[in-house]
Amino acid sequence: MARLVLITGGAGFIGSHLADELLRRGDRVRVLDVLSPQVHEDGRRPDYLDPAVELVVGDVRDGSAVRRALAGADAVVHLAARVGVGQSMYRVADYEAVNALGTAVLLEALIDKPVSRLVVASSMSIYGEGLYRTAAGEPVDGVERDASALRRGDWQVRGPDGEPLEPVPTPETKRPALASVYALSKYEQERLCLLVGAAYGIETVALRFFNVYGPRQALSNPYTGVIAIFAARLLNGRPPMVFEDGFQQRDFVSVHDVARACVQAIESPAAPGKAYNIGSGRAVTIRHVAERLAELLERPDLPPDITGKYRVGDVRHCFADISRARQDLGFVPQVTWDDGLTELAAWLEGRMALDRVEEASAELAARGLTV
Description:
By secondary structure, this protein is an alpha/beta fold. The chain has a single domain, classed as Rossmann fold (3-Layer(aba) Sandwich), CATH 3.40.50.720. Helices cover 36% and strands 16% of the residues. The protein contains twelve helices and 16 strands. The chain has helices at 13-24, 63-70, 85-88, 92-112, 147-151, 181-200, 226-235, 255-267, 286-296, 323-329, 337-348, 357-366; strands at 4-8, 28-33, 54-57, 75-78, 117-123, 131-133, 139-140, 166-168, 203-209, 211-213, 241-242, 249-250, 252-254, 274-278, 284-285, 305-306. Strands 3-2-1-4-5-9-14 form a seven-stranded parallel β-sheet, sandwiched between helices. Helix 2 crosses helix 4, helix 4 (92-112) packs parallel to helix 6 (181-200) and helix 7 packs across helix 9.
């Protein structure tokens, strides 16, 4: 008999791709989603959500809606969350309510009606700065950039004597450094699920997603992933806005690989009780992202606008060490960077997007959250 998997927040970008992957494997899929206007502008079921998916419209903070959605479920993938570092720094109550309280409501329902496996979406943001090493090869954990240096435009991460440090892949063993309300709320989600899962015998896995990209991203949400934000600018004939000098590094992972990782986390016998990085294992500069996307969209006349500004909560470098996920889950990214970005560019062709980036940037500046 096919298992029933509940995906909270499943009408969104990652959730809909996970639903497709589960359906291909013969599973039944139910989605609980509030259809937030920031993601689903018209408040309707998105056309890309497979008709075979059962949609329960409801808020993860509503216990009765959660219990309805859980009825008969064999496994849960908890994706429901507010996303975005910048917005989290002034919509504090909203992020804590959806991310932390919403997770607590789900867990109370699971205590009464447990499932065989719970997978929770965590985030690379919990690391703050990634892992670094000195020129002598010694690892350096827990470094932060100095505010006065940032005001001078010195973007580098430095050691105690001012020496530059080299970024290296970040493993799950790195200590959290919670630099934003969003990061704090994602860490709360992760720890709540692992703690309650252990207490009640619910097999629980946390997946720390790095920068996920691909078709179906919410293009008009200025607080979503950086690639979608750049795409919205380019589609409106405007250059991508890049903070700092553009040479900060991130790890971009295809949504198709993320969907496969979620299924592997549901099924792997070695996974329960652990947290895993889900990324590509490859570092890419933000400047390169902007330039390559403009090239694929045939807008070479729109080079990135390097603002030289810094956003509170941003980090310089962070990219994934995925060896633990490879060993325990069998996770091996299958979509190359160029293939993934080419697929995204093809999906973007002919699409419309509201460019709200300048509005969002003005909001951050007015609140003193950019330097």
